[in-house]
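Incident log, support desk, overnight shift.

02:14 A customer reports that sequence design results differ from what the structure should imply. Their input is reproduced verbatim below. On-call engineer (initials T.W.) acknowledged and began investigating.
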């Protein structure tokens, strides 16, 4: 996982495009930006925000070095993202978030912490994975507390679906991992079922994984804990090349 040495990139088959649905979030929708976040957007955005592009990113050029890269989907206000990037200076991070106030908040943290190993893409993470990430290259993908969409009629909006998991698996390097967490038990059960059914991944635990010590408590998780929710972590891995 994060402490393991970077596996060599290996090409994998492109599994195509998961069915698209509008990106919606009921949690941060309508959030407003403070002046510090607006200033960070204006001053740091040009350097740290990568525009969406329909072609793969050259990561060594983006970060100016060769290092294992971890992509986070839906970082919210970015508190946990910044903490992990600061704790793991040997890794590079790409945070993907659609919500502009979150982008401003994380940029502010990048400035405060001098986090040279972190970049942001403000776009739909499915399209970023599909279009901007070379297959077989990511050391890890973090999906921490995606929108749970409690109502049954909204379950189709949940990001964890078979085609999405196949897309993530195709972008992982051998030995790369997908780490999901949720505070909503029915979604945790869906995640476990969908991830276990993806042939390119294997569970590193028996069922749910213990919360890794390196995963910070996120803002959304804190909110759930205050409401008395439980937390479920799932840690799946693309087998290393010699074990495949
Ligand atoms: C429930 S919040 C959790 C935020 C953060 N991970 C946390 O734990 O505090 C989910 C976040 O995912 C973002 N999001 C939802 N769908 C997305 C997508 N397709 N691409 C990028 N971000 C997305 C939302 O804007 C929202 O900020």
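02:41 Re-run completed on a clean worker. Output:
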């Amino acid at each position: 996982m994060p402490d393991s040495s970077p596996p060599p990139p290996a090409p994998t088959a492109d599994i195509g495009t998961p069915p698209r649905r509008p990106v919606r979030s009921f949690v941060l929708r309508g959030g407003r930006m403070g002046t510090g976040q607006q200033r960070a957007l204006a001053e740091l955005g040009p350097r740290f925000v990568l525009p969406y592009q329909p072609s793969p990113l050259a990561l060594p050029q983006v970060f100016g070095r060769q290092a294992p890269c971890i992509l986070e989907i839906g970082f919210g206000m970015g508190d946990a993202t910044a903490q992990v990037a600061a704790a793991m200076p040997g890794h590079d991070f790409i945070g993907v978030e659609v919500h502009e106030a979150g982008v401003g908040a994380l940029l502010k943290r990048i400035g405060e912490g001098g986090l040279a190993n972190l970049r942001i893409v403000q776009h739909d993470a499915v399209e970023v994975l599909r279009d901007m990430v070379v297959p077989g290259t990511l050391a890890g993908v973090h999906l921490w507390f995606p929108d749970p969409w409690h109502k049954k009629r909204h379950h189709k909006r949940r990001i964890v679906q078979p085609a999405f998991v196949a897309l993530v698996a195709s972008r992982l390097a051998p030995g790369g991992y997908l780490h999901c967490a949720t505070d909503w038990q029915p979604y945790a059960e869906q995640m476990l079922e969908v991830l276990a059914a993806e042939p390119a991944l294997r569970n590193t635990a028996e069922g749910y994984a213990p919360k890794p010590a390196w995963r910070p408590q996120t803002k959304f998780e804190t909110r759930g804990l205050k409401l008395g929710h439980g937390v479920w972590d799932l840690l799946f891995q693309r087998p290393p090349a010699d074990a495949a």
